[in-house]
From TrEMBL, chain A:
Keyword Transmembrane on entry: yes
Compartments reported by the entry: Cell membrane
Coiled coil: none
UniProt keywords, alphabetically: Cell membrane, Membrane, Transmembrane, Transmembrane helix
Membrane protein topology class: Multi-pass membrane protein
Family of this protein: Belongs to the CPA3 antiporters (TC 2.A.63) subunit B family.
Primary location: membrane
GO CC annotation terms, alphabetical: plasma membrane
Statement: the UniProt record of this protein carries the keyword Lipid metabolism: no
The protein's name in its UniProt record: Sodium:proton antiporter
Segments passing through the bilayer: 21-41, 159-181, 193-212, 232-254
UniProtKB/TrEMBL annotation, chain B:
A cellular component annotation (GO) from this entry: plasma membrane
Lineage: Bacteria, Pseudomonadati, Pseudomonadota, Alphaproteobacteria, Acetobacterales
Residue ranges of the TM segments: 6-28, 40-60, 80-107, 119-136, 173-194, 214-238, 250-271, 283-305, 312-331, 343-367, 379-398, 418-436, 469-491, 575-593
Protein name: NADH-quinone oxidoreductase subunit E
Protein topology in the membrane: Multi-pass membrane protein
Domain NADH:quinone oxidoreductase/Mrp antiporter transmembrane: 136-397
Keyword annotations from UniProtKB, A to Z: Cell membrane, Membrane, Transmembrane, Transmembrane helix
Length: 271, 594
């Protein structure tokens, strides 16, 4: 932790000696760990062996009791839905933490000129790029929605769909430039989307309790197999995840972009 | 009110999901909700969460209950979904966490003016994840909450955003992420063998194949991860670096409850999942007890060598949690109960001490013991509180810390381990002596000559609290009042509850039953505190000690001190090597015990 002068020859020699000791220690410890892991690796189930009772059981439960065909969604949003609730709030926690760390360094002032990097010209994007992005962005957003909603039938879900929706926002940024993008969208909107989306998941569990069932139990009609609206309340929690993920990624995009904002004379770079 | 909510088994998920919902709503209203309102809402939520957990602990009594999310109860003996376990151990720990967070958020008013609601969101998620961890009855679910807790911790550590605080936060993040990765590998191994993640299901498999290498390896990996969070030697290196730079209300949470979460995880793993494996029991009894002894001794010595008060308190946390780890390693109900009580007592006192450190930072403008000599005289009430806490830390025979130590000691002596008192006394005497020395130097202008602490790392940081000294002292005194309540008024109740919680956690098993043994002589319990006072007065009166005597002592101890300082140099690569060494140590004991 203390500042030490490392330029002298003795200091360099000490550092070199220490590094070689550390490398030796690493090699010895790594060998010891491999030796210790050997009996464990020998005891592992054979590759491709199929004693997967749990997987078989879930494959039976999904179509029969939830009328859905994508078992990954059955696990994520219903059978082990509590884990997903935790993961979703973990994402919210990460985004909030990142926001605090980034904002701490530069404040929240939005008046200053954004999207500037010293020494780099700030060209208006070429018209061809703008046209392409304006066409692709809505399509990408619809594709994200499709991925999210169709999770009960085919691979997909709120996490994937939310990320795709957020990348559509990135296309809008490419087309409009950062300043226009920021004015059009605004961080408050994404905060609300993220927070309320995550809260929707947790509230969905309480709704089941209000109807006299266990937390996160299904309380909507299950629909018919192979239809988009099957799986009961899985649709709602999935929507919550979609909103939270899209909002979270959009917030991160904004915060990263804000890092390029030129500081005003009054802003304190060190917080 | 619906009858679903009246069932106490449903309360754990109500607590966790309620806190999560509130965090989401507060984030959504980040721009609208004024800070005062979010202060009030957050304080109310943490207090209600803690209160609900306390009522739950009373109501659930001798009948721990499982609550299956989504109604996915086991089918033909196979667990399908995830359950929360409502028992006295989890509920008691949650109630304690609620108390700690309430006081820390109260104390933090004014510290985080720049972060607005985001601070509250992170604190609510931090508490919710700890509650989820305490109630989880599923390996992977436990890991999810554990990870969320880590993420909240990383962000809160780096909040100050100066370069040392980023160093500390990075060390914290890297080491704990490696620990989490080990846990995940351990869970994968356990799942490979058991095809289930539910505690009872994995335990049933362990009962059938008690010598299975996969299960033993899973235990070693998971325990290593939890011991990293619990900051036990040699996985402890992140703690002093993180503590030194985290805002002091956050440090109070780290030392008060977060490191205990790691130990709670170890105890859950030992008793609820892997206890049927004889190798695991051997590993716990030999390996964890040696790591605990090592942490207790090394943390105490390091604490005495510090001049940065928060680093000193961090090392004292390593030492005291080491003592509690010994309690887990004793493999008996009384030892475990003592360990839990000791952790609670330590958490209360350590949180108070970190808040005092925060007061020093905000009113005296520094945290360096030598630099602040005599500066604390205007805020002498803080000095009196600090001195009293130092004596409690040293182990005066009052309060939960000492009650827990006595329970562990009784268990140890009934298993024939008579040296435990010495370890506890050593840890208490050195850490208490270090804090007493700070008190004397900062608040009473003693100790003009400094000794080995002179060479310790220091840092000129400060925190700004927009509140007067008295307003900062009130939460501190409130926490002390809680200590008095549990230490003196309800002393026997607290002891009984700790035993009951341990009985729940051990599933009523006891590998080393205790025998009633008489407590030791009445003079001996005061000895560590007396030694602590002797150490502090010797350190503060160095200028009166003849040079020949002092020089001989310093010359003899200097090489060891130098070496210890050199190990804790903040270089992350070396820290990771130490982690590997610890993993090899545990694996070696497991292999030799086969």
């Amino acid at each position: 932790m203390n500042a030490v002068d490392v330029s002298s020859r003795e200091a360099q020699a000490t550092i070199a000696r220490r590094a070689s000791v550390l490398r030796g220690a690493f090699a010895a410890l790594a060998v010891a760990l491999v030796v210790a892991a050997w009996p464990v690796m020998r005891a592992m189930p054979q590759f491709g062996a199929h004693p997967l009772i749990y997987g078989d059981r879930v494959n039976a439960i999904g179509p029969a009791e939830r009328h859905i065909t994508n078992m990954v969604s059955a696990i994520n949003f219903d059978i082990r839905g509590l884990d997903t609730l935790g993961e979703e709030f973990m994402l919210l926690c990460t985004v909030t933490g990142g926001t605090i760390l980034l904002r701490g360094g530069r404040g929240e002032d939005r008046r200053a000129q954004p999207g500037c990097v010293r020494g780099r010209a700030n060209h208006r994007p070429p018209d061809s790029l703008r046209l392409l992005c304006r066409m692709l962005a809505p399509l990408t957003m619809v594709f994200g929605l499709y991925l999210a909603i169709n999770a009960v039938l085919t691979p997909g879900g709120g996490f994937q769909g939310g990320v795709v929706i957020a990348s559509a926002l990135l296309l809008i940024y490419l087309a409009e430039g950062y300043a226009g993008w920021r004015d059009a969208l605004g961080g408050e909107f994404f905060d609300a989307m993220e927070g309320l989306g995550a809260a929707l998941y947790a509230l969905c569990g309480f709704a089941a309790m209000g109807l006299g069932r266990p937390y996160l139990a299904v309380f909507l009609p299950l629909g018919s197999l192979k239809s988009t609206f099957s799986g009961g309340s899985m649709l709602i929690v999935n929507l919550g995840v979609t909103l939270a993920v899209a909002g979270g990624f959009a917030t991160l995009l904004i915060e990263f972009m804000e890092e390029t904002r030129a500081l005003n004379p009054g802003d304190d770079a060190d917080g | 009110m619906n009858s679903v909510f009246a069932d106490p088994a449903a309360w754990p998920i109500c607590i966790v999901a309620g806190l999560l919902t509130l965090a989401g709503v507060l984030l959504a209203g980040a721009k609208i909700v004024p800070t005062l309102l979010s202060d009030i809402v957050t304080l109310a939520a943490t207090a209600i969460a803690g209160g609900m957990a306390a009522v739950l602990a009373m109501r659930i009594g001798d009948h721990p209950a499982l609550y299956w999310m989504g109604g996915w109860t086991p089918r033909q003996g196979q667990a399908i979904g995830i359950a929360f376990l409502a028992d006295r151990a989890g509920a008691g720990a949650t109630a304690f966490a609620g108390l700690m967070f309430t006081v820390a958020i109260w104390f933090a008013r004014g510290h985080f003016a720049g972060a607005r609601n985001h601070f509250h969101v992170l604190m609510l998620l931090f508490l919710a994840s700890q509650c989820g961890f305490f109630f989880a009855h599923d390996l992977f679910d436990m890991f999810v909450w554990f990870e969320m807790m880590s993420v909240a911790g990383f962000a809160l550590t780096g909040y100050a955003l100066r370069s040392p605080s980023l160093d500390g936060a990075l060390n914290f993040t890297i080491l704990n992420t490696i620990g989490a990765y080990l846990i995940l590998m351990g869970i994968a191994l356990a799942y490979a063998r058991a095809n289930a993640l539910d505690f009872s299901a994995v335990r049933a498999i362990a009962q059938g194949q008690p010598d299975d290498p996969l299960l033993i390896a899973a235990f070693v990996l998971i325990t290593t991860g939890f011991l990293t969070k619990a900051a036990q030697v040699p996985f402890h290196f992140w703690l002093p670096d993180a503590h030194a730079v985290a805002p002091s209300p956050v440090s109070a949470i780290f030392s008060g409850i977060m490191v205990s979460v790691g130990l709670f995880g170890v105890a859950r793993m030992v008793w609820e999942v892997f206890a049927p494996c004889p190798v695991v029991r051997h590993l716990v009894h030999v390996g964890l007890m040696s790591l605990g002894c090592g942490s207790a001794v090394m943390g105490a010595v390091m604490a005495l060598m510090q001049r940065h008060v928060k680093r000193m308190l961090a090392f004292s946390t390593v030492s005291h949690v080491g003592v509690a780890l010994i309690g887990v390693g004793l493999l008996g109900q009384q030892g475990l109960g003592g360990s839990l009580l000791y952790l609670a007592g330590h958490g209360l006192i350590k949180a108070v001490l970190f808040m005092i450190a925060g007061i020093m930072l905000s009113t005296l403008g520094g945290i360096d013991e030598i630099g602040l000599r005599g500066a604390g005289r205007p805020i002498w009430p803080a000095g009196i509180v600090m001195g009293a806490c130092a004596l409690v830390l040293a182990g005066i025979p009052i309060g939960p810390l000492d009650a827990g130590a006595q329970m562990m000691d009784a268990q140890a002596r009934s298993s024939g381990l008579h040296g435990l008192t010495l370890v506890i006394g050593f840890a208490g005497a050195l850490t208490g002596g270090a804090v007493l020395r700070v008190t004397g130097r900062v608040f009473f202008n003693l100790g003009p000559t400094s000794g080995e602490e002179d060479a310790a790392p220091t840092d000129d940081e400060r925190e700004h609290a927009n509140r007067p000294f008295a307003a900062q002292l009130v939460p501190v005194l409130a926490l002390l009042a809680v200590w008095v309540l549990f230490g003196i008024v309800f002393a026997s109740g607290a002891e009984d509850f700790a035993l009951a919680a341990a009985r729940d956690m051990t599933l009523d098993a006891d590998f080393f039953p205790r025998r009633g043994l008489p407590h030791v002589t009445p003079v001996l319990p005061w000895l560590p505190a007396l030694i602590a006072m002797a150490i502090a007065s010797a350190d503060l009166n160095r200028h009166h000690i003849p040079d020949a005597v002092y020089g001989a002592f310093a010359g003899a101890s200097r090489p060891a001190f130098r070496m210890l300082q050199a190990i804790h140099d903040g270089v992350i690569g070396e820290y990771v090597l130490w982690m590997m060494a610890g993993l090899v140590f545990l694996a070696g004991i497991a292999i030799l015990g086969c």
